[in-house]
Amino acid sequence: MSVVFSVRSVPGSVRLEHWQEEVFRTFVPLRIPEGEPVSGTISTDLLGPLQATTVDCDRGQGDHTLRLIARDSSTSCM
Length: 78
What we know:
By secondary structure, the protein is α+β, with helices and mostly antiparallel strands. The chain has two helices and three strands. It has helices at residues 12-26, 66-71; strands spanning 2-6, 40-47, 50-57. A three-stranded antiparallel beta sheet has the order 1-2-3, with helices on one face. Strand 2 (40-47) and strand 3 form a beta hairpin. The longest helix is centred in the N-terminal third of the chain and has 15 residues, at 12-26. 6% of the residues are buried. The mean pLDDT is 78.
């Protein structure tokens, strides 16, 4: 089963917020600066015990800061 998230149909005024939330939920906490163009989709499939994810989005900049890393409860240090 493929799970797909797209912001292409989301109104421009809230598109960045929705994209950041989905990237955070799917991958890592990431801050995308205001003014960056945002249009994209995230597709994910389970392949047995593995998860394969494809991201198709605009080129842009994102920051994975120490503060965001500290907020991410799924990250653990060994």
